[in-house]
Design a protein that fits this description.
Layout lengths: L2 H9 L15 E9 L3 E6 L4 E5 L11 E5 L2 E4 L5 E5 L5 E6 L3 E6 L7 H11 L3 E6 L7 H12 L5 E3 L9 H8 L3 E5 L6 H8 L12 H4 L8 E5 L5 E4 L1 H5 L7 H7 L7 H4 L14 H7 L5 H27 L1
Parallel strand pairs: 8-9, 8-11, 9-10, 11-13
Antiparallel strand pairs: 1-2, 1-4, 1-12, 2-3, 4-5, 6-7, 12-13
This protein binds guanosine-5'-diphosphate and zinc ion (ZN).
Guanosine-5'-diphosphate binds next to α5.
Amino acid sequence: MNPAAVAARHLKSRRHKNPDPPGSDQACCGLITSHHGVEVEVVFATGKRRMVRVKRSSGHVVGDEVEVRGEVLRRLPRRTELRRGDARGGIHLVAANLDVLGIVVALHSPAGFIDRAIVAARVAQLQPFVVVNKCDLDDTAALLANLQRIYGGSVPVFALSAASLTGLAPLQAFLNAGRRGVFVGSSGVGKSSLLNALCPTIDLRVGTVSAGNSQGRHTTTVSSLHALPGGGELVDTPGFRDFGLVEILVEELASHFPGFEDHGEVNCRFRNCRHRTEPGCAVIDLLAQGQIPADRYTLYLELLAEIETGQGEARSRGWKN
Ligand code: GDP
Ligand code: ZN
């Protein structure tokens, strides 16, 4: 889909005072498709695009729908917001109005990463999906079987090889259904390769894992939204590729942990059950019956303890300030 169609699709429900970009004080609606720090690119329903200057702290992000009047941008309400944390404990908005979060993994991806990302996506009201990359490598078959077993019942799982361009079709079909998404995953799993494979116009450098990125030394980060040839869009946010998702809360983990979703919130006696020692806990019952695998429950307890500790630290930091 070309950018004009992208803008048209997202704006079709909005009433336009004037479909053309403003030359004067006429207001019209557009979509922010790239962010360059001090200016953003807005694409209008007509297909026209222009750069509009913004303050660094304006809070506009890629995916924002805006009304433009001269040099003034007014942001329209957002459907969704996705945030990330940085190395210094700061929180940043990644993009607005996303529908899906693609969690990219390959061999040696850290344990618990997928679970945290699924929970974070669900909290942000995005649909999570898993992409198992590097399926051209023999060892990936065992990883894939394991991930299918664990997550297959909870979220879509796509197996592919971005480097050899194989297995892309099911993921393309999923995104082509008008979804707007972004990929997360640790450095080296192949996110740049995947964006290159899916968006022929994007042309990212592959294999440029640098310590500079993760320490925030790159200041001129450009975020951009790319229309896919058959429909749907992907957001590329270089800062996000190496950073983690924002920390999740204990309650969010307990109600959205993959595999527990139909039980915890619905069937436990206590609505805020942490599934540890509470009486009437549906998750512990299912564990005893063998319906929730012991290794999954163990990982849940590990993440729970980790998040409880993190929350405790954050709270005591807050008290000191
Ligand atoms: P990113 O850090 O997640 O953006 O990962 P990159 O796209 O930069 O890829 C990291 C490395 O993995 C590069 O050397 C790629 O060539 C390699 N790579 C990416 N996709 C594949 C794949 O499907 N198979 C194999 N074997 N290597 C891949
Ligand atoms: Zn419970």
